[in-house]
């Protein structure tokens, strides 16, 4: 039972780290999968295999080398010099993405709860500061609560969709984009998300001492991500093409359950923003600790303050440059991780 609990904690943490605001709102799924039509079922299958295989491999390598942060993993993959450059670039991108995520939390409170944007910002920063005093244990605990609730809401939306006229669209929907892009989409999606998720998956791999538990947790998490992708694609397909115009497509789909349930779903989206923000700040703290020698108790407030300040002015222009570059870097990193030759499965 203790092993089962740990496996579920690892699976939920893996899922919660990948399932950020873009996933929870449905925007990412529309962009990378649903808009390509029925072929998305196959591309989601490819993404699921990659999340299981490469996600497990990432955590196992981190476990084997005793990686303190993703910097150790990158040095293992690319060597000291190139690995250090990749880690530094990842640090910059992760800091930018984390700042924008904080700004998104503020916007969520303003647009859907009629509260001032600063309320969302302060609440997110305050909760993150409190939770990170507990380190990895807090990340495991928060994801163990938020992810099951999100699964319940997703199941409710699937139940609503079963009775809708477009419920069969997921296997008949025609996309209006070139097919070759559809087949590249799951690779791009998986590589980008895992490159960002390494901030928490690497220290998670080191924290868990039982390799079998880590292995099965990774498999369960990867399969869980795939099932959530498929469920969301199914529900979004039923409302195509009109659903594309909504900023929070999944929030629109849950409207038939009433305003109260819709507000609760907004809180679930906030929970997903919080879990990813929490994980990113933790990963940033670990790398900066490794580089500076400062304690996490000192670094976390500095990171939170930096994210808060940047969230006030926006980070759009820099991210316009960083995102495409990070897309290329994450693909190179992904391929290096796949071709990293160590027989990790037999040791599990």
Number of helices: 14
Secondary-structure element string: HHHHHHHHHHHHHH
By secondary-structure content and strand pairing, the structural class works out as mainly alpha
The CATH class designation is Mainly Alpha
Please tag this protein with its features.
single chain, 348 residues, mainly alpha, Hydantoin permease, 14 helices, 80% helix, 0% strand, globular
Written overview of the protein:
Helices cover 80% and strands 0% of the residues. It is mainly alpha-helical and 348 residues long. The chain has one domain: Hydantoin permease. Helix 4 packs across helix 5 (70-78). The protein is globular. Residues 343-348 have low confidence and may be disordered.
Produce a short descriptive summary.
By secondary structure, the protein is mostly helical.
How do the strands and helices of this protein lay out in sequence?
Elements: H1 2-18, H2 21-25, H3 27-32, H4 40-65, H5 70-78, H6 80-113, H7 117-132, H8 136-162, H9 179-207, H10 211-237, H11 249-253, H12 259-292, H13 296-313, H14 316-339
């Amino acid at each position: 039972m203790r092993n089962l609990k740990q496996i579920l904690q690892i699976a939920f943490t893996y899922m919660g780290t990948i399932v950020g605001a873009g996933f929870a709102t449905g925007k990412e799924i529309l962009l990378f999968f649903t808009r390509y039509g029925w072929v998305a079922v196959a591309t989601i299958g490819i993404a699921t295999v990659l999340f299981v295989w490469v996600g497990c491999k990432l955590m196992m390598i981190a476990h084997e080398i005793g990686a303190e942060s993703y910097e150790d993993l990158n040095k293992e993959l690319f060597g000291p010099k190139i690995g250090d450059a990749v880690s530094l670039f990842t640090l910059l991108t992760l800091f930018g993405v984390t700042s924008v995520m904080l700004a998104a939390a503020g916007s969520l409170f303003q647009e859907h709860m009629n509260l001032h944007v600063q309320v969302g910002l302060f609440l997110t920063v305050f909760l993150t500061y409190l939770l990170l005093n507990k380190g990895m244990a807090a990340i495991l605990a928060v994801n163990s609560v938020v992810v099951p609730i999100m699964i319940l809401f997703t199941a409710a939306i699937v139940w609503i969709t079963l009775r809708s006229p477009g419920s069969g669209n997921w296997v008949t929907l025609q996309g209006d984009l070139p097919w070759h892009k559809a087949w590249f989409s799951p690779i791009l999606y998986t590589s980008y998300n895992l490159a960002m998720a390494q901030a928490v998956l690497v220290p998670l791999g080191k924290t868990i001492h039982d390799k079998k538990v880590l292995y099965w947790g990774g498999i369960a998490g990867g399969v869980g991500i795939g099932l959530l992708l498929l469920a969301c694609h199914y529900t979004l397909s039923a409302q195509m093409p009109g659903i594309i115009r909504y900023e929070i497509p999944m929030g629109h789909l849950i409207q038939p359950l009433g305003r109260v349930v819709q507000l609760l779903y907004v809180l679930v989206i906030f929970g997903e923003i919080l879990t990813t923000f929490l994980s990113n700040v933790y990963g940033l703290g670990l790398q900066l600790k490794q580089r500076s020698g400062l304690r996490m108790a000192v670094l976390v407030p500095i990171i939170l303050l930096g994210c808060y300040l940047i969230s006030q002015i926006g980070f759009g222009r820099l991210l316009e440059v960083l995102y495409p570059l990070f897309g290329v870097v994450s693909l190179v990193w992904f391929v290096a991780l796949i071709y990293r030759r160590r027989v990790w499965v037999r040791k599990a």
